[in-house]
## 1
Amino acid sequence: MDRPLVALVLAGGTGTRLYPASRSDRPKQFLPLVGDRSLLSRTVARASFADEVFVCTREAFASEIPDHAPEATVIVEPDGKDTGPALVYATHRIGEVVGDCVVLALPSDHHVGDGGAFEATMRTGARVAAETGSLVAFGVEPTRPDTGYGYVEPGADRGDHFDLAAFREKPDAETAARYIESGCLWNAGIFAWTPDALRRAALGSPLAPLVEALDAGDPETGFEAVEAVSVDYAVMERAEDAAVVPAAFEWDDLGSWDALERVLDADAADNVALGEALSVDAAGNVVASDGKHVSLVGVDDLAVVAWDDRVLVAPKAEAQRVREVVAALKEEGRF
Amino acid sequence: MDRPLVALVLAGGTGTRLYPASRSDRPKQFLPLVGDRSLLSRTVARASFADEVFVCTREAFASEIPDHAPEATVIVEPDGKDTGPALVYATHRIGEVVGDCVVLALPSDHHVGDGGAFEATMRTGARVAAETGSLVAFGVEPTRPDTGYGYVEPGADRGDHFDLAAFREKPDAETAARYIESGCLWNAGIFAWTPDALRRAALGSPLAPLVEALDAGDPETGFEAVEAVSVDYAVMERAEDAAVVPAAFEWDDLGSWDALERVLDADAADNVALGEALSVDAAGNVVASDGKHVSLVGVDDLAVVAWDDRVLVAPKAEAQRVREVVAALKEEGRF
């Protein structure tokens, strides 16, 4: 492949469901949830095979990016409007700076296992993007009918990739089982494309006003003209040439506290802890702290999180409901 | 009554069941669990009708007593051996310093309601102690068949007091109901006696070697010669002349975290909080913190405590089991 391979790491989100570790001024990607380094730092390290690395983030987080990704070039998005506008904008900027290339768009706050499959899979996707001019999604082989993930449905088999038949939103349990039965894959939120391919696809999407404003050199007006929307539904699903590359690496979006069960080692009673915990007749709990010592006695299947001057307790199975806590705190201006 | 009335506040305990608020270097009596002031400070203020106030504590806590009780005289017990040796020793010291008097022995870590009944009841007990030479216990009118308290059984009615028939250890639920049916009272752990009366009774008890050593001016040897034992069973129950004065004030020993339910106001979902808490679909919980903000979502009937760099979560009904956590932490030298 002649084109340079550019990693574009998206680091503008907040990850509110990981409150109180994630806060308005400390988004999820800055947290060391797996190992000693932040998720962002690990993502950038994982992408080190790329010729260049860019990190796209919001103004408020920009000054901290070098702490996590000292070698990366920072792109500041004019406004936080989900992944669609951010990726169209950042890919446009990369095209201006680097010229023709293949962009590999990577979330900054997911967990990927350490096996070698990641780089090989990314290189395959980049080659497909360069050779076919398609927008390429990556579909992770599911290990369970997860209702917290989106799915991608592969279409015709093209050898090292599939046509993209459809994106599927987070399903209920029955639908998730059917998706897996029919060969759907987890949508990893990772994409590969050339700047030109994304530009053409975005022109046929609700993001067209942004593309036109970028052409006119006025990104602020472009962001004002579009809604907050994910790239999956705004662009990928409408694209005439979209592909799926299957991925076999271990992957988790660490979307809520119960996810720690899947990435940390459990004790004999199936408790997992990020930080120090003491369990007495307590089983199946998830503990996370910034160094505080957490004792559990006689409780099962809870998520207990202590960070800074905040504590959260919820049933592990209802970890998604942290959203409700954050909503209440935001109303008080205390998130 | 000619004899001076001396309040003797016992402040040598640790209150381990209130971990993590109570720690090896911060006993329960130093904590502001009700209102803004420590339990010790409130106890001393409550005893301000006495002519003098002494606080008996262990060496490790002695330097902090003036922060809570600036006007009190501090007595340091040679060793921590429960209330029996401490009260015999401190009463002996008071006899040396003050001369003949009535000593009112008060725990420093209990809650007493603000009504005026406390002083009147204490004065009655002191008068009985002075006039009859009895050792006087105080029995609180029970409001429920509590299994966490000891009971005192009144004997013959003597007008303003009863003979003491027996002390009863913490009962099971059925026994507690029977105690209440038969007129038993909660043992408040408060006593009144003259120095001479306690000396005589202690000479007929397992604490006799301590009395003899005190007479010989050698308290250290006296403490080495006796076991750790409560004054209730070592002295009071064996005494020939022991009395009970009934008490009608609100009283709680704040023995474990579930006790906060009884002394704090609840929200609409029956949650109580010492410190800031946010409850979303959570009911019947007890929260306590040193200023940390605690969020609960979807959990019921838990005790959640956050103090310093420690967090504890247990079912409210199993709050006694904090002992098990403390035992494990002590083994690690981390209590």
## 2
Amino acid sequence: KRSYTITLLPGDGIGPEVISVAKDVLLLSGSIEGIKYEFHEKLLGGAALDATGVPLPDETLSVAKESDAVLLGAIGGYKWDKNEKHLKPETGLLQLRAGLKVFANLRPATVFPQLVDASTLKREVAEGVDLMVIRELTGGIYFGKPRGFGTNENGEETGYNTEIYAAHEIDRIARFAFEVARKRGRKLCSVDKANVLEASMFWRKRVLALAQEYPDIELSHMYVDNAAMQLIRNPKQFDTIVTNNIFGDILSDEASMITGSIGMLPSASLGDSGPGLFEPIHGSAPDIAGQDKANPFATVLSAAMLLRYGLGEEKAAERIEKAVLDTLNRGFRTADIYSSGTKLVGCKQLGEEILKSV
Amino acid sequence: KRSYTITLLPGDGIGPEVISVAKDVLLLSGSIEGIKYEFHEKLLGGAALDATGVPLPDETLSVAKESDAVLLGAIGGYKWDKNEKHLKPETGLLQLRAGLKVFANLRPATVFPQLVDASTLKREVAEGVDLMVIRELTGGIYFGKPRGFGTNENGEETGYNTEIYAAHEIDRIARFAFEVARKRGRKLCSVDKANVLEASMFWRKRVLALAQEYPDIELSHMYVDNAAMQLIRNPKQFDTIVTNNIFGDILSDEASMITGSIGMLPSASLGDSGPGLFEPIHGSAPDIAGQDKANPFATVLSAAMLLRYGLGEEKAAERIEKAVLDTLNRGFRTADIYSSGTKLVGCKQLGEEILKSV
Ligand SMILES: CC(C)[C@H](C(=O)O)[C@@H](O)C(=O)O
Ligand SMILES: CC(C)[C@H](C(=O)O)[C@@H](O)C(=O)O
């Protein structure tokens, strides 16, 4: 029997509810596929702040580093919104990403045929959208130095950050993206702002140089403002997108909203070695936390990504993905994706229905 | 008779075609409203590069500075895409913005009832959208220093830029935005990434402090990734948006695409004093340049903004806006906004129809 150690980070808001469902789904699918799990549940974000005073306790990071994969619910909430930077839940997440060295963030935006009407885009525009945003996750303006607050030559207060990329940071994410594109539609669009920013000019130069090694991939370049438009005008033109940390933050959220059902979308963050970090792209939704209203599909699909990209357990991943589709086909929906004619259920009951389909 | 000097910058691609129409519309509406114009046509962008070797000749800037307002067509094209930074058409535009000190960029995103079906968003989502993005235009990462290419402590090549805002830069754009919101729906949404970036934390702090002076304006704050989603989910929730240079670049383009007809959207860039810069938000469209296919509406509406915000000639501005609506109602369309049952015309003929409606 294959055996893996998984760190569970329920986090805040609806995090614990969706993680609980995903854990059950992992256990059941594992028992069928001959996979054993040891789960370690640890604190992150607001939950960690309340309990320990820091958003990423050392213990959480060291346990996560030693495990085979990390599954995260969601972090953040109004309660901690006014905290100073080093005491924000978000800072814990950024420290976790940096600590695990997961530089490649994969964010699929897939329109489920069963949910196409949930998109605010016209059916003919949304139908069949299946794109992957690959976001650089441990560099750029999120981590660049110098950063902080200062005084300029006129004695005026300032706030500043540094967008910076070194050659190897661009090369490894670009290489990663070329490889993913090769397994998908062999089309890669690199998004930058090379008409204005030196950091982007350098990005484009490195991506272009690497393209020599991937003659089978159709590479294009797009300015970020145009990409924000094209995602709305015709999202089906995209197959795989690669971009920097901040542009990826914006464009992957935009792309996910195009599907109309962000409660369905998982993500994976991977490094060169060591455990990957898997999480739904939705947030902690404090408004509905603890009310059994959360949609656990995205976290369950994140568990499938964990199996595929984190553990190489393709069959178990597919089993979970089929169970999700089957549950959708049987008409079960949480409130966020409900439409008339389908069956409205809570988070727990949806979890039970997914288990029936596993 | 009131008399004004206008600098015309046709620029590249379809620029000359749309500027020619807007000039005729200004002249005719001016003759009715008792306004006289002296036009100075100057070089900018690729056209300037080809003729003078620089994208913003000194003469263009000095003539522009001395005029009452500047009307720009569009700049850029494949021909100059590979140029070094200081020889890019875009650099000329950035130098012009900086030279005119136009720190406030107003970008309305309005869905015209006649064109609502051109949006890829569902009718009920797009209908009635009328929002204004106010983008900081002369600061932030576009102009921040240090910037360039370097070598890091590992001897590796890097590319870098600085996102920086000083107190007065934030205060003046925020004040501007509060004033605009006051004339609109009294709702202002400030977009930042204050959960990660110090530059954004400082931005939010200054905006919050200024809010004391505008108790009648409902102020909210939104993270840029969420804003990119909310624009698609429910654009009607927004009235006035204020944000930094790079986020504004991305979000204003996204917002404009939501309307489905970027060929209709004007923009204004204003400073504390001196001439404003007015331009359509669409680009130079090199593919259709010189073919009489361009849509001149956005430039004509930019001329209306020039009258309203640049010269304080509200009546003449309204006359032009009414002429545009009337021409739309009479069914005239260029190819980009054509739908069956309407009359397809070229740029020139559309110009003549607008003149009939002035
Ligand atoms: C919570 C926040 C720090 C984070 C980010 O900006 O990376 C989130 O928006 C995301 O995309 O995962
Ligand atoms: C052409 C380019 C430099 C410019 C910008 O990024 O500001 C354009 O995208 C715009 O929004 O006016």
## 3
Amino acid sequence: MPTFSSFVPPRRVLMGPGPSDVSPRVLEALSRPTIGHLDPAFISLMEEIKQLLRYAFQTENELTMPISGPGTAGMETCVVNLVEPGEKVIVCQNGVFGGRLKEMVKRCGGLVIPVDDPWGRAVDPEKVETALRAHPDTAVVAVVHAETSTGALSDVATIAALARNAGALSIVDAVTSLGGSELRTDDWGIDAVYSGTQKCLSVPPGLSPITLNDRAVAKVRGRKTPVQSWFMDLNLILGYWTGGAQRSYHHTAPINALYGLHEGLRVLAEEGIEKSWARHTANHHALRAGLESAGLTFAVPEAERLPQLNSILVPDVVDDAASRKALLERFGLEIGAGLGALAGKVWRIGLMGYASRRENIDLCVEAVETVVREAVTGMPHVQ
Amino acid sequence: MPTFSSFVPPRRVLMGPGPSDVSPRVLEALSRPTIGHLDPAFISLMEEIKQLLRYAFQTENELTMPISGPGTAGMETCVVNLVEPGEKVIVCQNGVFGGRLKEMVKRCGGLVIPVDDPWGRAVDPEKVETALRAHPDTAVVAVVHAETSTGALSDVATIAALARNAGALSIVDAVTSLGGSELRTDDWGIDAVYSGTQKCLSVPPGLSPITLNDRAVAKVRGRKTPVQSWFMDLNLILGYWTGGAQRSYHHTAPINALYGLHEGLRVLAEEGIEKSWARHTANHHALRAGLESAGLTFAVPEAERLPQLNSILVPDVVDDAASRKALLERFGLEIGAGLGALAGKVWRIGLMGYASRRENIDLCVEAVETVVREAVTGMPHVQ
């Protein structure tokens, strides 16, 4: 039989595209004793999580809950419930995750109407407007709020309004934005939003909070075809999450992960969502000042930058992989590599949730400055 | 903004159909600091988890890994990857979970050939043989090893052999059996197995270990149609879990949940899988002796009983829901209600993993005896 030691993680500061550093309060909550998923005490916890998520999403939507899987499962849950075979779906793509949305729409029989923008730029709402005029029978418009693969922030308020005026539903990917960038689900009239826990909520990965308004729920309830996924069928999941005293079993909820989410959402509510947005922005400016002083350049135009995910051009003088390895091994600092079209071209530096702190900015600036200087001088910096 | 206290779970002994009591070692592991999903240290952890799971499944299969969702996600992953539209699938049903398999097969375009047995009985291999003769073009045979909804154990070794002789693949649901009942994936020639963490592994719910042999992987790799789920497409997931140094990103792995699984699998390996099976059987006999002394009757015939999930007929004198409430509130003891055809007729008493201990048997027998006696005498037992 295999014998391994208990796993002791190395000391890291997580400033990549996620997971971000998890608050000690959340880590402690994860280790509380497991109880049953139908226990009255757990049902109360679920109700509190729903209320806390409504606050985070800035919504009154009844259907607000965590999906029992990572952000990708939340994305697919929204797509397979809201798209019926043969329907037209405008998918905005300006990075990896718009591409993933397209693939999911195709796999459930939707017809993708692509609206493509360059990687590292925001989605252009005028292109969405043009696509809606060309395809007035569009059923759904899907767009990523904060494109984690590039660090670009898109104007989903405008895009959701365009969709609604054209009679289409909107799906917004808020995986990296929730808690870090202004997101007002109700005020902006977004019909469905999904997110993840491992970005600005600073909860470990594995859950995907979603919220759907009444228009979206009506579509799910009135589908002509069954949702192709049994696991993700909201008609069934709602029997458990909104069933009240008559809650019906669908799948066993991930109890301890939900303890962690509850605590992470409490941390957010204590700070206040607007203050959290402001902190992410302020820390972004501090990081920017430090990195620019060190001679580094941002990849995304200023007006379209995400505060919580900073894409920096990899300086010509350094070796991408070797530098990130040095940051990890010598400074315990994780930053992200470029993905897809930006692979090898950018570093992605996250400032998300609990990780968005002054001491992390100082560490990051010093560490990045060091590895770049060493590349220029050809000698390791004496520490 | 909503303000809630940090969640402190009530003290419970989990002897229902799962989740089961989680080992303190596993709870502690959950709270270790989160690291990145592409961190070299995490990649090493993933390799150890794969080896430990191979031991638990008794297999050498390369594709052995946890799916990032509960057992239901593992079930659907096996079905959507191994069934193509239009293919015939024999689904054995003797409880809730066979019914769930049928629904998933239908939703991905498979043609269900039902093999039904009464709830509370094992699947009859002769019926499977007859169905295979009537449908020689059957592509897949799906069967539940340990039917959690009834407490019946089926002979999946014989059923997998029948499938293989007929040229069909076998899918076995081992959610409740893994670690608690003899399961020999390779020796029995099973092509695909999925399980859950919250039963006899005594890890919180949220992950679904799966294993596929080369025949099953060849089918996934050689599909004529794309897997309908992007999230569950093993062709994509394997790029992350078996990609070696060139691991490609698919979704963010649930880091801390995997710390817990690693520790839970270490606990199993330290005990030894055969010893774990034997412990579950011995404790089942002890519980049986106690409950029968108290006048209670098992719902499943002796030869077909699961040691880790004991279905007891609800005595005529008691109120089902009120009695379970009394067990929970006065004894901190969670047992399970009947499901589906057995709702209101049985209690399901789990003895799984860390919960399968002598002290729990004593607590359960005393508590159940007490609430039954009180129902007979009409007065609460003085404690």
